[in-house]
Amino acid sequence: MTTSRIKAIIKINLCSIARVWADLRGGDGTLKVGIVTRNKDGWCSTQLQEAMKKRNVTPLCFSFPQLLARVKYTPEASVGKANVLKDLSALITRPIGRGSLEEIIFRMDILHRLERLGMLIINPPLAIERSADKYCALTLLEEHGLPVPRTAVTESPEEALKVFHELGGDIVVKPLFGSRGAGSTRISDPEIARRVFRTVSFYHGVLYLQEFIPHGSSDIRAFVIGDRVVASMHRVAETWKTNVSLGAKPMPCKLGRELENLAVRATGVIGCRVAGVDVLEGPAGPVIVELNSQPGWRGLQSVTEVNIADEIIEYVLSELRAW
């Protein structure tokens, strides 16, 4: 093939890429990316907005209650005067937030609808649903050969008491849905276990019981974007709960290849593109206890030189080019 022919092919390909990228921009030539967030002035949301502006991307922040969805007439989704589908090229979901069953279902429904209509959603709604449900996430990880703690789930307080003994009489009871360690309780007394199980059952809760993994007072949070760990930390606490939101201190750490691969594989199994993976280093080796599809990173940012918001936006832009 001649040099002139190669140059011509390269020129054609570059022009095609330019046309695709132009199509992602609005009529005023500005690329717009939405952030669904409870608080546009929150730290993580502000970081994302700053990272966008550095790249001439216009952020549009709104909350789920501001969304209006339509069926059989257009626009299919809007926020005030903004036509979400027309004005935005991608949507970043920050925490789905608390709400009634109907509210949460509607929020997920509209994300699925937008994705079906061609919008890039980070993270995809199916991945959010999987990771929010601890039992669902753990079963998928186990089925793909990833190390997880022994766990049992039941609605019966009587069965839960049997499991308490099966798991060695030292367990952690967690809400099926929840994050930041809220509602998680360690129990090693059978009478206390009986009372807790009955109380949870009385209020129609599901009993999610996990063996306690001795891990000192620290764990690992790996922050995965795409197919790589961009930053990681040890979270060091004075108790067994290692959430930064509960007072644990972030400490810098560099993961070995095995742990990095573990975190990336877990993220891929759940279907996340951005995730926080929590790993305990137990006596029998590392185990994945949870995966957060909408992780905060303020604590992690304090112990890494990587600008995590920049990495997220760069990833979103690279995905848009391939979308």
How would you sum up this structure, described in words?
The protein is of the alpha+beta class and 323 residues long. It folds into 3 domains: 3-122, 3-Layer(aba) Sandwich (Rossmann fold); 151-211, Dna Ligase, domain 1, CATH 3.30.1490.20; 214-305, D-amino Acid Aminotransferase, Chain A, domain 1 (2-Layer Sandwich). Helices cover 39% and strands 25% of the residues. The chain contains 11 helices and 16 strands. The chain has helices at 3-23, 43-54, 84-87, 101-116, 125-132, 134-143, 157-166, 190-202, 257-270, 298-301, 308-322, and strands spanning 31-36, 57-62, 67-69, 77-79, 82-83, 90-93, 120-122, 151-154, 171-174, 185-187, 207-211, 218-225, 228-236, 249-252, 274-282, 285-292. The strands form 4 sheets. It has a 5-stranded antiparallel sheet. Strands 2-1-6-7 form a 4-stranded parallel sheet, sandwiched between helices. It has a 4-stranded antiparallel sheet with strand order 8-11-9-10, with helices on one face. Strand 4 (77-79) and strand 5 form a beta hairpin. The longest helix is centred in the first third of the chain and has 21 residues, at 3-23. The protein starts with a helix and ends with a helix. The model is unreliable at 6-23 (pLDDT under 50).
